[in-house]
Amino acid sequence: MPDKKEVKGVIERISGSLVVAGGMEGASMQDVVHIGELGLVGEILEVKGDKASIQVYEETSGLMPGEPVVSTGEPLSVELGPGIIEQFYDGIQRPLELIEKAANSHFISRGISVPALDRNKKWAFNPKVKVGDEVIAGDILGTVQETVVVEHRIMVPFGLKGKVTKIESGEHTIEDVIAVLDDNGKKYEIKMLQRWPVRKPRPVAQRLAPNVPMTTGQRVVDAFFPVALGGTACVPGPFGSGKTVIQHQFAKWAQAQIVVYVGCGERGNEMTDVLLEFPELDDPQSGQPLMKRTTLIANTSNMPVAAREASVYTAITLAEYYRDMGYSVALMADSTSRWAEALREMSGRLEEMPGEEGYPAYLGTRLASFYERAGRCIVNGKDQREGSITVIGAVSPPGGDLSEPVTQNTLRVTKVFWGLDANLAYQRHFPAINWLSSYSLYTERLDAYWNEKFDDQWSGLRIEAMSLLEQESQLNEIVRLVGIDALSRDERMVMETAKSLREDFLHQNAFHEIDTYASMEKQFKMLRTIVDFHHQGLEALRKGAPMNKLFNLPVREQIARMRYLEEKDINQIDALDEVIKEQINGIVPVGGETNAA
Amino acid sequence: MLPREYRTISSLSGPLMMVEKTQDVRYDELVEISLANGEKRRGRVLEIETDRALVQVFEGTSGIDGEDTKVRFVGKVLTLPVARNMLGRVFNGRGEPIDGGAPLIAEQNLDINGMPMNPFSRDYPSEFIQTGISTIDGLNPMVRGQKLPIFSASGLPHNRMAAQIARQATVISGHEDFAVVFAAMGITFEEASFFMEDFRRTGALQRTVLYINLADDPAIERISTPRIALTAAEYLAFECNMHVVVILTDLTNYCEALREISAARKEVPGRRGYPGYLYTDLATMYERAGRLKGKSGSITQIPILTMPEDDKTHPIPDLTGYITEGQIILSRSLHRQGIYPPVDVMPSLSRLKDKGIGKDKTREDHADLMNQLFAAYARGKEAKELAVILGEGALSDEDKAFAKFSTEFEDKYVRQGEYENRTIKETLELGWNLLTMIPVKELKRIRDAYIDKYLKPLLDAKSKTE
């Protein structure tokens, strides 16, 4: 760190979470400061002459003009090193468990300073380089088994390179020097503990196109509106439409190696839920508890507003750190609207000129630069590792009105839109993702991937199923006007299949032990069976099979129950093909001439 | 530090006053104001600069003048004296007794703003509360530590329903220390006396604390009333280990008072003139519900708000819905049909239901039955709408069955007496009985095992009688 003169000022004005301090010559934008006798943490938002406007990450009540303000001379940073996974942090990376211990209370008191990472814990460091090796920034010096599933890779910090002159092995704390580099005579000591400013994206070597899917086990998402590794997605919806449940489902079943979940201005109980549930649930890929790959960041709605603004940056910086190790990381942010509101509140207190609905004019840029930190890329380091960050942001539009600024600015940068629909939620159709309004710009790219896996059948199935649903919505208009009897027999079949798609495929019960997750194989088989019934049904109707009998065939019961088949039994779905054929043959009149309805 | 007195009020506007030449004033500090005629008022510091302070006066600024009014900074934030024998007492919106009884002897003085609960220290609410109301217990089950608001509108019986919940709420596991904290914000004398009378008559008063801010009390006082009530609730729940239900009514009046202050401060307004921080402000109250690890007490919140123009997208219900764990919505159309309680089943929701129900909590079939009732009712209502346009003849036989089901459902399941206390078992049985009207193959949301166990006997009995 460059030497900085310590800047010391005094409080001149206090208004909510905004403090203005005088005598702050030499302070830089975004420096972290300690405020008052309690030493509350804050960040400089604006500098005017010797006055600095500071957003305070803790409750300001009891502060007084004249109390000291001391700048640390450093921007808001996170600590990086083993011990991040399985942690439960607040918005500025303080472990909530340690806050509880330090405060000796179930409530969060102020001015608590606890280290983000345990300084005393010893980790078994396993070196990957030898003395004499030349290394560059991003190269892996060694590894630490952080949890059963996560191998933590200690990398050469950015800006450093050189020849390894010393490398340790065995039990070390994060503050022990584990390697020494020699860069043309300059010596650098490297520890496991590193720091990075949260508002500065960590650099990568090369960015890649997102053409590998990230499956989520959610049928409506994976089949119709998929997200790619390194992609960005948003889930806007009115309250009660199931945003949080969907985010939890993604956090549980997304095919990512690391999950960072940030609860930003949301309910305390939801975070507690995750905290209690994740250690109990097993990851379908590793068979280990989900918590072993998860880190949680909570700034609940009753915690100070300013730290809410910081929490998403803390989260994405941690995500970038694991991406740099070569992992696929999924970041869930619930909800970005609360983050935008925190921006708006600070902007209002700074008396900035408001843009739309009181949000600051820079809302769009801030959102865009946050989502832009997602991506699939080759990270730094000689071995050209590949890593990715997939960002899924929930948006809470007021009154479910998607025309509001946060949703609109988010839609401009994200590539997948899962529109939640209150009407579907009322009908208890979950996930309440509206299949007509949602979209994914990754669909075509990912079709190529799945077609390869499923013998070129995938994209055809997907397109046909979607077109049936589309036709249903048009036919529904007619039904509403003139009744179902006005439809032709073919159209009735379309309606019937679309209903089956909705009820037997799109609808998925997050709280059912089996239905909660469906592998791609299962989804493919299910979809194929439903569409197969449609084809054979149409054929049978044209041959004169009675419609009522067709729609009430016993095999339809089996189709409806496919979702409850365990993953090991999904081959049973293949057998349904034969059953459909047999039962339909049973009702097609011999000769195919009668035209009974 | 000695409290200092000032006579340096420079400006007055709405509920706000600016005091000049102040020294050593703390943010959020309590302020005592003595008027020339001897009247005393209280306020709090909203904003301070080096030599002046902006004060919000709880009782309003009328009658305050710039010359003779004395302002004293107390040196501490607004605290509430609390004690276990608050139970059975009635206080005003500032926490002073108004029932003619002796002043409270404080066991503790607590900051009314409380402190945020550490999410790590929370215990997940999972204990089912039986309210005796089928639409809540059966379809939107409430658990201890939940915050479940009632979205109502003018003219609907939300007060009767809240009183019924306060009266009947119990846990299946047995009777434990149970208390009700009731905070009224800007409601009429008539409404307040309805609650007091009901609590008195049913004997609930001795386990109730009431904080009453009436419609003609100062609006600004309403800002502290719910916080005072929640502070009392936290004391009872986490110091006295009681299970506390907090009823807050009417949040719409609270938000209007907040808007008044915001407007007086000339802040940039958000939607419909409400301040941009309305969400955060409401959250600091609603989030005070919950359970804590290692503590046997709990705070369950039932805030009541009236939706202006029955509009669910109005900022107050909207932001509330984003913070609370579900909502019970009352329907004007059911009320018109004479159905009490007029709970609009479709948009109502309890987010914590899944944790509170099932085997060993209510009954194994509860979740499936609940989902099926919802789905069937939705389909029935759709069918009825269709029948309105096309006539009943256009409906398929199945749709007819669903339509009939939905009518019966409203009549038998939703409708119940104000003093009818249904056990959860009765509610579940009622649900199964109604499902006998629907063909079994349409019951896709229920596991076969439960259909065999619970529905088949009913169907057999039905076919015998036919």
Looking at this protein, list some descriptive labels.
heterodimer, A: 597 residues, alpha+beta, 10-stranded mixed beta sheet, 6-stranded antiparallel beta barrel, 16 helices, globular, B: 466 residues, alpha/beta, 7-stranded antiparallel beta sheet, 13 helices, 23% strand, elongated
How would you sum up this structure, described in words?
The complex is a heterodimer of chains A (597) and B (466). Chain A has 597 residues and is of the alpha+beta class. Chain A is built from 16 helices and 28 strands. In chain A, strands 8, 18, 21, 22, 23, 24, 25, 26, 27 and 28 form a 10-stranded mixed sheet that branches. Chain A has a 6-stranded antiparallel beta barrel with strand order 1-2-5-4-3-6. A 4-stranded antiparallel sheet of chain A has the order 12-11-9-14, with no helix packed on it. In chain A, helix 12 (489-506) runs antiparallel to helix 13 (520-542). The longest helix of chain A is centred in the last third of the chain and has 25 residues, at 458-482. Chain A is globular and about 95 Å long. Chain B has 466 residues and is α/β, with parallel strands linked by helices. Helix content of chain B is 34%, strand content 23%. In chain B, helix 10 crosses helix 12. The longest helix of chain B has 25 residues, at 366-390. Chain B is elongated. In chain B, 53% of the residues are buried. Chains A and B meet through strand 1, helix 1, helix 4, helix 6 and helix 9 of A and strand 5, strand 11, helix 6, helix 7 and helix 10 of B.
